[in-house]
Design a protein that fits this description.
GO terms for molecular function: pyridoxal phosphate binding; transaminase activity. Belongs to the class-III pyridoxal-phosphate-dependent aminotransferase family. Keywords: Aminotransferase, Pyridoxal phosphate, Transferase. It holds the Pfam family Aminotran_3. It is a single chain. By secondary structure, this protein is of the alpha/beta class. The protein has 2 domains: about 5-60 and about 330-440, Aspartate Aminotransferase, domain 1 (Alpha-Beta Complex), CATH 3.90.1150.10; about 65-325, 3-Layer(aba) Sandwich (Aspartate Aminotransferase, domain 2), CATH 3.40.640.10. It is built from 14 helices and 15 strands. A hairpin with a 4-residue loop joins strand 2 and strand 3 (about 45-50). Helix 7 runs parallel beside helix 8 (about 225-235) and helix 11 runs parallel beside helix 14 (about 420-440). The chain is globular, with a radius of gyration of 22 Å. The chain starts with 5 loop residues before the first helix and ends with a helix. The mean pLDDT is about 95. Bound molecules: pyridoxal-5'-phosphate (PLP). The site of pyridoxal-5'-phosphate (PLP) has 15 residues, from helix 5.
Length: about 450
Amino acid sequence: MKEESSDDKEIIKEYTFKTWSKQKGWDPIIVTYAKGVYFYDKNGKKYLDFSSQFVNVNLGYGNEKVISSIKEQLDKLQYINPSFGADVRARASRSLLKVMPKGITKFFFSTSGTEANEAAIKITRLYKKPNYKILARYRSYHGSTESSISLTGDYRRWFVEPHTMPGVVRIPEPYCFRCPLKLKYPDCGIACANYVDYVIKQEKHVAGIIIEPITGTNGVIVPPKEYMPLIRKIAKENDILFIADEVMTGWGRVGEWFAVNLWNIEPDILTTAKGASASYVPIGITGFKKEIGEYFEENVFAHGHTFEAHPVSLAAIPAVIEEYERLNILSHVRIMGDYLGKRLMELKERHKSVGDVRGVGLFWAMELVKDNNNTPFGGYEDKYDGKITLVDTLAKKLMEKGVYVYNGPSWFIIAPPLVINKEEIDQGVNALDEILNEADKEFAG
Ligand code: PLP
């Protein structure tokens, strides 16, 4: 095996940024190839992708059907400005109508989850004028630009404060492992959801509420079964728009096309990205219910981008949906998800440093703790200061073992490509099993 040339690495480090991070000490692995659920570095070392990168490479790597669809579009029409109607835009819309939650029938196409949320907020405010306030949760991530970072509740928002968008009102999340209201489910009566009604009434000019149906990067927080239907009901009763941010939870990740299907609820607006193209090309989608679409018949839809509805990005959508269907991805995810969940629960039994394991479908978090009081190994303050937590160090060691797992300050996010099989799951779980011994040594109590 030949030595990895340092040239590419040096150029990348010298001339580009590692995002959300101090630059010092960055040691990027140079990836050159990927297939199935594995990617390979310059030396040919193989890594299991146990998190679909940032929970986005839903079909794994090298799917021929998706690649051909994109290539065919490139041969035919590479770009046309969005005021024209490329045929691929009709094909993508038809495919979306088959899978979107009931009622979502009008689409705005962008190139990221961030942009999908920016559009959702701007349109919510135009539609609900003069109401403008948006409710969002503390443990949330909605993107990195002006509105979306302001909606974001986690530490990533702190970097831009006080320059955040006015009109965001914060509400608590259903994080039962560390309840923000210090209550216990089910005795809590879902106080975190009921409180939203009070907030809306006190704030008065509320236009909408944005929620990740299952919180993603902030630790795969699966709400109690009553929570989402209750939030939906409260939004409806108070006549505010309910925006489901399904950037991470959409496209089969939870064993349904979209997470809102888990509770049979219909959002007014749904934002998504990542799995919509299985990440072969950049795409963001903001889906609206009919009434919102109709409002803009006589009112200016004051939004848009040069790369909006890009034909090459749109070409991925019908191909990806066909592949999800051909591979029976929803039932595969349910079966593999049960298996993965069972195996992760075994690790919880075996390792005292595992405080909580939670998830649904192929979307799981394992939260590590350092004592019997469930004290985390690291928190938002550490991330804000650019500190390396124990979980960061363990994730690095997993990479050395050939397993990539995306992590937060005190949790791993285990969300492999939806095409994963049992043997591949075992490989990832076994690597986690070994590495958790190191966390156990740090456990006091
Ligand atoms: N919303 C959620 C729930 C996300 O998880 C993310 C990214 O991880 C975003 C929005 C932002 O998407 P993007 O990184 O494509 O801009």
